[in-house]
């Protein structure tokens, strides 16, 4: 019905969300098979979509993404997208989760996507304490894949050093294929946006 629509978002779930949004707009305007919406308006609208904190790239070398996944379902969607749409040779997760969430479920869903993780505290009084988060992470990822950092800034710096090491080992490839994903809660994504000079929204 609307061919060749570009959506600058990652993940099959985002394509599904876009289709639902388009159906809602069609219903609102009474559009359908007999009366379509303006295709150029649709193309323009979808091409300009930005969702802060949803696999949002905030740096390129190394690649740093933010994602506000805060439950097992969101973490599974993030992990699936990272594995299906990217080809990282080393991917480090920076993770801080709220204490009232299904932390084991979130970490279990993320485990296949990350080579290592840096667990930390995002500064919120609601965040799980770093030692408790590290304990759960060690059970899921194993001790060789978990690093602890006291603050989000420390965690980002630690993760950056980890991917820089991989970049040096990669020779001519450099940072190509290395990345960092900061995730675990909306608060974590917002705090990370601030660290990277963006509005926390």
Automatic annotation (TrEMBL):
Supply the Gene3D superfamilies for this chain: Mur ligase, C-terminal domain, Mur-like, catalytic domain
Look up the domain of life of the source.
Bacteria
- Name the species this protein comes from: Mycobacteroides abscessus 1948
Q: What is this protein called?
A: Mur ligase family, glutamate ligase domain protein
**Annotated ranges, domain Mur ligase C-terminal:** 53-165
Cite the entry's keywords alphabetically.
Answer: Ligase
Q: What are the protein's GO molecular function terms?
A: acid-amino acid ligase activity; ATP binding
């Amino acid at each position: 019905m609307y061919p060749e629509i570009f959506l600058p978002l990652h993940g099959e779930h985002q394509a599904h969300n876009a289709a639902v949004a388009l159906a809602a707009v069609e219903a609102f305007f009474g559009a359908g098979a007999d009366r379509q919406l303006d295709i150029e308006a649709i193309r323009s609208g979808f091409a300009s979509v930005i969702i802060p904190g949803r696999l949002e790239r905030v740096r390129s070398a190394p690649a740093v993404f933010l994602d506000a996944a805060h439950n097992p379902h969101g973490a599974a969607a993030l992990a699936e997208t990272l594995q299906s749409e990217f080809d990282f040779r080393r991917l480090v997760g920076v993770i801080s989760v709220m204490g009232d969430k299904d932390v084991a479920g979130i970490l279990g869903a993320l485990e296949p996507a990350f080579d290592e993780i840096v667990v930390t505290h995002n500064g919120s009084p609601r965040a799980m304490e770093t030692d408790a988060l590290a304990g759960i992470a060690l059970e899921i990822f194993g001790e060789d894949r978990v690093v602890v950092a006291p603050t989000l800034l420390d965690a980002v710096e630690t993760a950056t050093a980890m991917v820089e090491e991989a970049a040096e080992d990669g020779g001519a490839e450099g940072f190509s294929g290395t990345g960092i994903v900061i995730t675990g809660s909306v608060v974590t994504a917002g705090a990370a946006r601030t660290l990277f000079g963006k509005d926390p929204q």
